[in-house]
Amino acid sequence: GKLILKPGPMSYGEEKLLQFFGQLLGVAIRADVPFPLDLLSSFWKSLLACPLDRKDDLREADILTHKLLKNLVDVKTPDEFNELSASAVCLSEELSGSQLVFVYPSVCGEEMALCPTGSRRPVTWENRLEFVRLVKDLRAAELASEDRMTAVRCGLASVVPVQLLHILTPRDIQLRTIGQPEVNLTYLKAHTMYQVGLMESDKHIQYFWRALESFSQDELRRFVKFACNQERIPMGQPCRASADLHIPPFPMKIAPPDGKGDCHLVHCQLLVLTDLRFDAGPPDNRF
């Protein structure tokens, strides 16, 4: 699953760790080397101080709570509400007692009173929409985690001018910071340079790409780790025209060996392939 910041009060040590985490995100942005960490989209919205979507962000973070609240809103009659309330109490270990009350578990599992007398106030047909609103308020505050996000922004600001971040959308900064969890082979192929007389039309180059096309996503990620020594490929920088001006790890370079053996070598971002002259047809998807 994806991660969020732990809500609630933080210690001095946690604040320093969050500042360091912000610095790591800044380094990932400046170096264009993705940080392999899956975070909910609400994290990137909160980082840029963008409002959260009470529907989509809640569904992504807590699908069970989203379904419960949706059902509470959609019920048509008091009898349907009573059945839903009873089933919710039976199915949820966190909602203790014989009926729903204005208490709801936090993302950490702690019971949180939604109002001053929450533990003694039952959820009824008449006040169910108020219960829904208060639960959404609780989850939105936990996802935003403003105090902890402030510490992350402080660390980020020590590496990247935060004023420039406001020209980016949450999706933009997400791609520039953690990249894509899936390896886009078309993108990888478009950001590859061929050196020392090699061409994309060469037989062994075609075999190489054909082998990669047969790989699963897990195998492609391992190839990127092997070839580039990182977990993900960046999505923020285009391929540069000059080999001396590219941002790591692109463009990926493919070159022939130096004639000292037939092994396949990887050095930094330079992939060395040998033309084995397969007269009997392509290899069996191995390299």
Could you characterize what this model shows?
The chain is an alpha/beta fold and 287 residues long. A hairpin with a 2-residue loop joins strand 5 and strand 6. Helix 1 crosses helix 7, helix 1 packs across helix 9 and helix 2 crosses helix 9. The longest helix has 20 residues. The two termini are 33 Å apart. About 9% of the residues have low confidence.
Task: Based on the model shown, name its key terms.
287 residues; alpha/beta; four-stranded mixed sheet; two-stranded antiparallel sheet; 12 helices; 6 strands; elongated
How do the strands and helices of this protein lay out in sequence?
Elements lengths: L11 H20 L9 H7 L8 H6 L1 H12 L3 H14 L11 E3 L5 E3 L14 H17 L1 H12 L4 H4 L4 H9 L6 H6 L1 E3 L8 H11 L3 H12 L23 E4 L9 E3 L2 E3 L15
Parallel strand pairs: 3-4, 4-6
Antiparallel strand pairs: 1-2, 5-6
Helix pairs in contact: 1-7, 1-9, 2-9
Concise synopsis of the structure shown:
45% of the residues lie in helices and 7% in strands. It is of the alpha/beta class.
